[in-house]
From TrEMBL, chain A:
Residues 95-401 form the Dehydrogenase E1 component domain. The keyword Membrane does not apply. The branched-chain alpha-keto dehydrogenase complex catalyzes the overall conversion of alpha-keto acids to acyl-CoA and CO(2). It contains multiple copies of three enzymatic components: branched-chain alpha-keto acid decarboxylase (E1), lipoamide acyltransferase (E2) and lipoamide dehydrogenase (E3). Keywords: Oxidoreductase, Thiamine pyrophosphate. PANTHER family: 2-OXOISOVALERATE DEHYDROGENASE SUBUNIT ALPHA, MITOCHONDRIAL. This is 2-oxoisovalerate dehydrogenase subunit alpha. The keyword Oxidoreductase applies. Belongs to the BCKDHA family. It comes from Aspergillus cavernicola. InterPro entries: Alpha-ketoacid_DH_E1_comp (IPR050771), DH_E1 (IPR001017), THDP-binding (IPR029061). It catalyses: N(6)-[(R)-lipoyl]-L-lysyl-[protein] + 3-methyl-2-oxobutanoate + H(+) = N(6)-[(R)-S(8)-2-methylpropanoyldihydrolipoyl]-L-lysyl-[protein] + CO2.
UniProtKB/TrEMBL annotation, chain B:
The pyruvate dehydrogenase complex catalyzes the overall conversion of pyruvate to acetyl-CoA and CO2. The keyword Phosphoprotein does not apply. Its cofactor is thiamine diphosphate. It holds the Pfam family Transketolase_C. It comes from the Eukaryota. It comes from Aspergillus cavernicola. The keyword Lipid biosynthesis does not apply. Residues 48-223 form the Transketolase-like pyrimidine-binding domain. Keywords: Oxidoreductase, Pyruvate, Thiamine pyrophosphate. Its EC number is 1.2.4.1. This is Pyruvate dehydrogenase E1 component subunit beta. InterPro entries: PDHB_mito-type, THDP-binding, Transketo_C/PFOR_II, Transketolase-like_Pyr-bd, Transketolase_C.
Length: 446, 374
């Protein structure tokens, strides 16, 4: 105990110094002034007194509005608005990235059905959110994603070969075959490896943002960076969401939380998931700058993320919450048959009526930047390229044998090293018994 | 957490009839005598899947005890991520079969609260991997409140869901929690293997006045087992804390639980065929309380002990049983006891690695042959 006490005393002192100097802290102490018309309790410092007793009924309050730039016909809603500030070439890249994700989804979903991989998660209907938001990030920004953000990886330069190598767990998979399919990760642009456990990435994002904040305090010359954290509205029911937002708010972390509100958490419709005004209303409760955007409108998502990024870096850093509304056209995952809990016609309706890809296509066609011929050849080209990488990845060798032992700890334990030696001895003693051709570098890989 | 709970891996198995990948053998460990399906025989035995047995147990207890209700993610409308709760919503209505938001801490906490208030909730986790989000509720609240409240707050709650190895779902969906829950005073823990186990133990768990964790296994759900006439009746209950000798033998005692029981039986048959050795296979059924007597009696008979489980090697169910064998049966052991467990590695995804990280029938046979110096 005696060794713990001084330490625990020291920690608060450091923390205090990093926020407010001691003297300033005292001067801001809260006290009730006589005759004031408002309360100054420590927990609510500017609340007016009232003699009217009334409970706030959230249903009496207007819903938070949804920001959009394009209507569902791909036409700018506000004709007088300032230009987007994005080149046509860049918009075409976004469009092709959306097409790539959506075509890859179809191919990989089928491949899973054929038993060529155990699992896959598609993002149909939500390509606009992931690609539009990622387009507003810099490569130095840090991303924590959930598992329906293939578009974020695509936009940040993850190649088809990277995707396929992960999905088929081959030697080029930077997770060495250890992770479930779609658990992508990337060192640079920094994108933390997907974790199956829901919502745990939200507090992690706060922590990573806090680290970035300290880093820029210590090295003011480094480029300012933010953390972007993605999750679905179902994940926002987890305790980690609330803990993560509150800690980001109280520590003023430069993090943008982006909630993909797609209407379903597996089979649970939002009506049964929560009763408030979406996820956006919660950001306000935590004292966080919040916006709701139309997730099918890639321009709105892009602009919101760009503005949120700037906001997150202002005032020494602060969190921002974006709630992007969309509709999950796809099944939850390959393990799900969503027609068990929603009408097929509802899905078809959404697919046809409003969809981020079709909306951007209409815009591009209105601008004369795209047409049916370009669409056909782009789709054919993307499809051929995906299938080529698919086939190559499936045939590629497995990771080196040593990868079966490495990675549990930072350094291979003595015990594991002993086992590797023993395995090597056996493999070398009985070479005709073990076919190592499927593994990268064969016996040398151990 | 949640999850991909997201990942609903079992439903994938359901759809894997289209699967060409041999990666997901549903009944890899089915003992050979079960490979042909019978429906009803002269002695009234019927083949029932573990899934149906659990469903029957839930329906019977919901029917007979108005204090019970089941809640969890997707248990109602979707009939359960693994279809264990199929038809229960239609039969018992939304007040007793409740879909919850994705918040383990929330719905598990709610269930514990309802139990402390006198109801008998059944709390389904999509898998016990996700119960980690609610482990404070299970251990600090459910398991300890009866003791801490001086007995005035009983906690008749059942936690259930798949546990342990699955197929192709990697580190965060394949963990075996038998040892975690088995180490907590105040909790009871059962791990059914067959359909009879599943029905009898789940019903016992629901009726037991204490918090009970029912650790099912995803790969067993679709597997059919013969169910005796007695077990088909609605008064069938198995005692918690009693193991079952699934296969008598005289040369080696194999103690196992959950899916590994099936693997051990297949291994025992192979040991008999290859070496003429008679292995006795004990199905633990209950992790806590543990049937030490049955294990030690068997050990006294055979003189050799092997434990087979899918958890991590250290501080596990096998470690405990080996320690007990040393405490209570040391003089009867004619060879050092052996454990066959999962590997000391977060479960990898790639098929070859995954197979190597869990006990296989060949591993059990090989280790048994070594133990017996065959």
């Amino acid at each position: 105990m005696s060794s713990i006490l001084p330490l625990s005393r020291r920690i608060p002192r450091i923390a205090r110094r990093s926020t407010l100097p001691l003297s300033q802290r005292w001067s801001t102490s809260i006290s009730q002034r006589p005759g004031s018309d408002r309360v100054r309790f420590p927990g609510a410092v500017n609340s007016k007194f009232t003699t009217e007793m009334s409970f706030i009924n959230p249903q009496d309050m207007p819903s938070i509005p949804t920001y959009r730039v394009l209507d569902s016909d791909g036409v700018l809603v506000d004709k007088d608005r300032k230009p987007l500030g994005v080149s046509n070439e860049e918009i075409l890249v976004w469009y092709k990235n959306m097409l790539t994700v959506s075509i890859m989804d179809i191919i990989m979903f089928e491949a899973q059905r054929q038993g060529r991989l155990s699992f896959y998660i598609v993002s149909a209907g939500e390509e606009g959110i992931s690609i539009g938001s990622a387009a507003a990030l810099t490569p130095d920004d840090v991303v924590f994603a959930q598992y329906r953000e293939t578009g974020v990886f695509q936009q940040r330069g993850f190649t088809l070969k990277n995707f396929m190598s992960q999905l088929f767990a081959n030697k080029n998979d930077n997770g060495y075959g250890r992770n479930m399919p779609v658990h992508y990760g990337c060192d640079y642009p920094r994108t933390h490896t997907i974790s199956s456990t829901l919502a745990t990435q939200i507090p992690h994002a706060s922590g990573a943002a806090y680290a970035l904040k300290l880093q820029s305090l210590q090295n003011p010359d480094t480029p300012r960076r933010i953390v972007a954290c993605y999750f679905g509205e179902g994940a926002a029911s987890e305790g980690d969401f609330h803990a993560g937002l509150n800690i980001a708010s109280t520590r003023s972390c430069p993090v943008v939380f982006l909630c993909r509100n797609n209407g379903y958490a597996i089979s649970t419709p939002t009506l049964e998931q929560y009763r408030g005004d979406g996820i956006a209303s919660r950001g306000i409760g935590y004292g966080i700058d919040t916006i709701r955007v139309d997730g099918n409108d890639i321009f709105a998502v892009y602009e919101a993320m760009a503005a949120a990024r700037a906001l997150a870096l202002s005032d020494g850093g602060k969190p921002v919450l974006i709630e992007a509304m969309s509709y999950r056209v796809s099944h939850h995952s390959t393990s799900d048959d969503s027609f068990a809990y929603r009408a097929r016609v509802e899905v078809e309706d959404w697919k046809r009526r409003d969809n981020p890809i079709i909306r951007l296509r209409k815009y591009l066609e209105n601008q004369g930047l795209w047409n049916e011929d370009l669409e056909r050849s782009a789709r054919e080209g993307i499809r051929a390229e995906i299938l080529r990488e698919f086939g190559a990845a499936e045939r590629e060798k497995k990771p080196e044998i040593r990868m079966a032992f490495e990675g549990v700890y930072d350094e291979v334990t003595d015990e594991a090293r002993g086992q590797m030696g023993e395995l090597k001895r056996i493999l070398e003693t009985y070479p005709e018994e073990y076919d190592l051709r499927a593994f990268e570098r064969g016996i040398e890989g151990l | 957490m949640a999850s991909p709970r997201l990942f609903r891996p079992a439903a994938r198995l359901l759809s894997s009839r289209l699967s060409a990948r041999p990666a997901f053998p549903q009944a890899a460990c089915t003992p050979s005598l079960l490979r042909f399906r019978r429906y009803a025989t002269a002695n009234g035995t019927k083949d029932v899947t573990v899934r149906d047995a659990l469903n029957e147990a839930l329906a019977e207890e919901l029917e007979s005890n108005q204090k019970t209700f089941i809640l969890g993610e997707e248990v109602a409308q979707y009939n359960g991520a693994y279809k264990v709760t199929r038809g229960l919503l239609d039969r018992f209505g939304p007040k007793r079969v409740i879909d919850t938001p994705i918040t383990e801490a929330g719905f598990c906490g709610l269930a514990v609260g309802a139990a402390l208030a006198g109801l008998h909730p059944i709390c389904e986790f999509m898998t016990f991997n996700f119960a980690m989000q609610a482990i404070d509720q299970i251990i600090n609240s459910a398991a300890k409140t009866h003791y801490m409240s001086g007995g005035i707050q009983p906690c008749n709650i059942t936690f259930r869901g798949p546990n342990g190895f699955a197929a192709g779902v990697a580190a965060q969906h394949s963990q075996d929690y038998s040892a975690w829950y088995g180490s907590i005073p105040g909790l009871k823990v059962v791990a059914p293997w067959s359909a009879e186990d599943a029905k009898g133990l789940l019903k016992a768990a629901i009726r037991d006045p204490n918090p009970v964790c029912v650790l099912e296994n995803e790969l067993l759900y679709g597997q059919a087992f013969p169910m005796s006439e007695a077990a088909q009746k609605d008064d069938f209950v198995l005692p918690i804390g009693k193991a079952k000798i699934e296969r008598p033998g005289k040369d080696l005692t194999i103690v196992s639980l959950s899916r590994c029981v099936g693997q051990s039986l297949t291994a025992a048959a192979e040991l008999k065929q290859k070496y003429g050795v008679d292995a006795e296979v004990i199905n633990l059924r209950s992790v806590k309380p543990l049937d030490v007597e049955t294990i030690i009696q068997s050990l006294k008979k055979t003189g050799r002990l092997m434990c087979v489980e899918s958890g991590f090697p250290m501080f596990g169910v096998s470690s405990e049983i080996l320690a007990l064998s040393m405490e209570y049966g040391f003089d009867y052991l004619t060879a050092p006891a052996v454990r066959v467990t999962g590997a000391e590695v977060p479960t990898p995804y790639a098929l070859g690695l995954e197979n190597m990280s869990f006990p296989q029938e060949s591993t059990i046979v090989g280790q048994a042959a070594k133990l017996l110096r065959l």
